[in-house]
Amino acid sequence: MQNLLEFLQKYHHWFLFVVLEVISLIMLFSYNSYHNSVWLSTANAAVGTVNEGRAEMESFFMLSKMNESLTKRNFYLERQLAQMRRLYSETTGDTSAFRQEMMFLKQFHLVPAKVVTNELNRSDNLLTINRGADDGVGVGMGVACGQGLVGVTYLVSDHFSVVIPVLNTSSRISCAIRGYNYFGVLRWDGKDAGVAYLEDIPRHARFKRGDWVETNGYSSIFPPGVLVGKIETVYNSRDGLSYRVKVRLSTDFGRLRDVVVINDPTVAERAKLLQSARDSLKLNVKE
């Protein structure tokens, strides 16, 4: 005991230096937005590398089941596509609409990725994927999976990206009811991981339980038609001026592994054009 006290007394200035250094670093990263952003990016890359290894190990033991599921899904999709093409040609004698739809989809570049971390039990859930700026991923890009909608990229490093999923109370995604074109904003209330709510649906809208909800393509993030889920219940909004629709999500976030990042090369051009229009309107108002 005496030796320990003598050791602490002899080197107490070094211990004091370490404590003060830690306090200064905490204050630096807590109250400086730039350093905080650098710290988050560095920590995200380091943690992402570790979690990627763990996710790859888990995926290895699931490869057999995943390959079987993917094979079946591809088979069914190919059969449905062939049948739709044949039926449309027989009905109209024209395949131009089909070709136009395929050309529209080709403008989107899909970046495949794997989920390396995933949260479900928080109100501000985040997930991390193993693709970043070096793979063509940028901030504000849509993320989807084979089952449907996932979220939007929020923070991007060279090799990893953090995604704000639908299961985050700050998520806001424009969606519509399939076949009716009534659109609203999809939000999560922080409770059930399998349910979200489509809000601000107009009172004159006519739809029913069991109808599908999908992205409407009005934003520059998602193309139209990305599946969101199925309507379970319809409520009145708090002010009684619109509907609040309970949606059973098609994406199972608890089993989420493989996703795609939707990169639309035309986004930058459209954003620049929209900003120019806004600037022009501001100048006209001032005049």
Helix content: 40-55%
Largest sheet report:
6 strands, antiparallel, barrel
Rg value? 25 Å
What's the SSE pattern?
HHHHEEEEEEEEEEEEH
For the terminal residues, how far apart are their CA atoms?
82 Å
What count of helical segments does DSSP give?
Answer: 5
Overall shape: it is: elongated
Q: How are the strands of the biggest sheet laid out side by side?
A: 1-2-5-4-3-12
Low-confidence stretches: none
Q: Based on helices, strands and strand pairing, what is the structural class? A: alpha+beta
Mean pLDDT, as a whole number? 78
Number of strands: 12
Portion in strands: 25-35%
Can you describe what's shown?
By secondary structure, the chain is α+β, with helices and mostly antiparallel strands. Helices cover 42% and strands 26% of the residues. The chain is built from five helices and twelve strands. It has helices at 2-10, 12-31, 33-92, 96-106, 267-286, and strands at residues 109-118, 127-129, 142-144, 149-156, 161-165, 173-177, 183-187, 195-202, 212-215, 227-236, 242-249, 258-263. The strands form two sheets. A six-stranded antiparallel barrel has the order 1-2-5-4-3-12. A six-stranded antiparallel barrel has the order 6-7-8-11-10-9. Strand 10 and strand 11 form a beta hairpin. The termini are far apart. The model has no long low-confidence stretch (mean pLDDT 78).
